């Protein structure tokens, strides 16, 4: 546990760490829905104990709220009128929630296979929703054609700023953590978390450096494959995430610098972890199950370590909302939608 300089102690959201973000956002532009400062819950796995960080308790059910609270606030400061994002669900939900608070129009390109409960939550914030099997390409095209910022974390470094709050918060609230486990697709969370921990350690603000462990599953293993041998097994965990990320090499470098490694988790282990979490009343996402499964394997070998796992998302049943969506898989489809009229640019 550390006392961080320049702390806005009365705040229990990501803006508690406003002086650590770059660029700094003046208070009048800081948008918050009370994200961050999530619970640290102790759980037991047989004779082994661990801590899980309940990021599923964020206002929109995932750690993405940290990133998008900062990112949309920066866009608000810059007087942007519209933003675009492609997402498997959680990032689009967070972006839409904060964009609505800021009065910014969001275009969200998501897979037609996005779970209905996530789509319902997304609809509630009234973005322009485009269902596409090629959502990342569609978002890239929209960004280039209409000259609006693409929030996608695999492409935009601003996405990492809000995630720094994870490292700062853990360091402030825990006496010591030997290892931190986090699921990765784009890897922005892992890169920001590891980078901030390294910076705190190098500046002498923390006396220990937690090992950073990356968790992936199923057909998503590009980062972990560069850290350890993988054993591909069937699972739906993270199935809508991107298969590879331009952040791969920098993440691998950061993980190695902390002394951590990668974990590729298969279906059986994920199902067992799910049952454990349900027993503790934790209704997290399948990525959270994979994180616990990796923690369990690690602790079976080194039970004396203090381990913390990031529970990245929740499964909530949101009200079924009937709202207009659009379909587009090609640039021509987007042009025909006449988005310039819908987003008033």
Written account of the structure:
With 345 residues, the protein is of the alpha/beta class. 36% of the residues lie in helices and 16% in strands. It has 2 domains: 14-63 and 163-311, Rossmann fold; 64-156 and 319-342, Rossmann fold. Helix 3 links the parallel strand 4 (105-110) and strand 5 (128-131). Helix 6 packs parallel to helix 7 (248-258). It starts with 39 loop residues before the first strand and ends with a helix. The model has no long low-confidence stretch (mean pLDDT 92).
Key terms:
345 residues, Rossmann fold, 11 helices, 16% strand, globular
Briefly characterize the structure.
The chain has helices at residues 64-77, 90-102, 116-123, 135-146, 164-173, 188-202, 248-258, 267-279, 286-301, 331-337, 339-342; strands at residues 40-45, 48-54, 82-87, 105-110, 128-131, 149-150, 179-183, 211-217, 262-265, 307-311, 326-327.
> Can you tell me the residue ranges where pLDDT is under 50 for at least 5 consecutive residues?
none
Query: What is the SS-derived class?
Result: alpha/beta
Could you tell me the CATH topology label of the largest domain: Rossmann fold
**Strand composition percent:** 15-25%
- Tell me the distance between the termini: 48 Å
Determine Rg (CA atoms, Å). 19 Å
Total domain units: 2
| Helix percentage | 25-40%
Write down the secondary-structure element order: EEHEHEHEHEHEHEHEHHEEHH
Name the average pLDDT: 92
Strand order of the largest sheet: 1-2-10-7-8-9
Instruction: Please report the first level of CATH classification, the CATH class of the largest domain.
Output: Alpha Beta
* Record field, number of beta strands: 11
CATH architecture field of the largest domain: 3-Layer(aba) Sandwich
Largest sheet: 6 strands, mixed
The best one-word shape is: globular
Number of helices: 11
């Amino acid at each position: 546990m550390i006392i961080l300089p320049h702390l806005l102690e009365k705040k229990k959201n990501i803006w508690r760490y406003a002086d650590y973000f770059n660029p700094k956002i003046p208070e009048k532009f800081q948008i918050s829905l009370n994200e961050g400062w999530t619970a640290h819950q102790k759980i037991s796995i047989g004779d082994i104990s661990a801590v899980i960080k309940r990021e599923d308790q964020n206002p929109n059910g995932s750690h993405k709220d940290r990133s998008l609270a900062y990112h949309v606030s920066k866009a608000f400061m810059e007087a942007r009128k519209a933003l675009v994002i492609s997402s498997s669900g959680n990032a689009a939900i967070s972006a839409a929630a904060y964009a609505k608070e800021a009065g910014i129009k969001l275009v969200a390109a998501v897979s037609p296979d996005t779970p209905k409960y996530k789509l319902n939550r997304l609809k509630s914030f009234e973005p322009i929703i485009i269902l596409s099997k090629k959502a990342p390409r569609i978002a890239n095209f929209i960004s280039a054609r209409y000259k609006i910022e693409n929030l996608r974390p695999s492409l935009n470094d601003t996405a990492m700023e809000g995630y720094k709050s994870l490292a700062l918060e853990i360091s402030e609230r825990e006496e010591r953590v030997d290892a931190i486990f986090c699921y990765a697709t784009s890897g922005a969370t892992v890169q920001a978390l590891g980078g901030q921990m390294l910076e705190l350690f190098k500046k002498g603000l923390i006396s220990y450096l937690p090992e950073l462990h990356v968790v992936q599953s199923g057909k998503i293993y590009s980062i972990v494959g560069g850290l350890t041998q993988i054993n591909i097994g069937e699972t739906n965990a993270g199935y809508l995430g991107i298969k590879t990320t331009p952040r791969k090499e920098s993440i691998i470098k950061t993980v190695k610098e902390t002394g951590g490694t990668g974990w590729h988790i298969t279906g059986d282990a994920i199902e067992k972890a799910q049952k454990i979490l349900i027993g503790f009343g934790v209704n997290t996402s399948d990525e959270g199950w994979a994180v616990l499964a990796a923690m369990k394997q690690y602790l079976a070998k080194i039970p004396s370590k203090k381990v913390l796992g990031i529970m990245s998302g929740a499964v909530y049943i949101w009200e079924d909302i009937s709202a207009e969506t659009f379909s587009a898989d090609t640039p021509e489809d987007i042009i025909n939608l006449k988005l310039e009229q819908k987003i008033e640019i």
